[in-house]
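Pinned message: reference record for Interferon alpha-inducible protein 27-like protein 2A
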Amino acid sequence: MGLLTFALAGTGAVGAVFAAPVVLAAVGFTSAGIAVGSIAAGMMSTAAVANGGAVAAGTTVAVLQAAGAAGLPAAASAGVAGVGATIGWVAAILI
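Predicted structure (tokens):
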């Protein structure tokens, strides 16, 4: 593996960790709650209808809202960094 591969993998990892909160807020998972009329609101509505009016703990919507409100826990940040590094690695192969 060359220097370019390491550089792109590192850039992908760091970029993904910094981009995750921005992406969560952009789709509507904010620190103030789920934004009205957002993608997150649609997901919450669908989850509530499927669950009899409530959003169950541990579901995708609940986990994403917790991350949007409090930030990503260390394990999730590591996972996001891994995905970003993989994308950078694949980009290096394609170049």
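Pinned by admin. Summary line: DSSP finds four helices and two strands in the chain.
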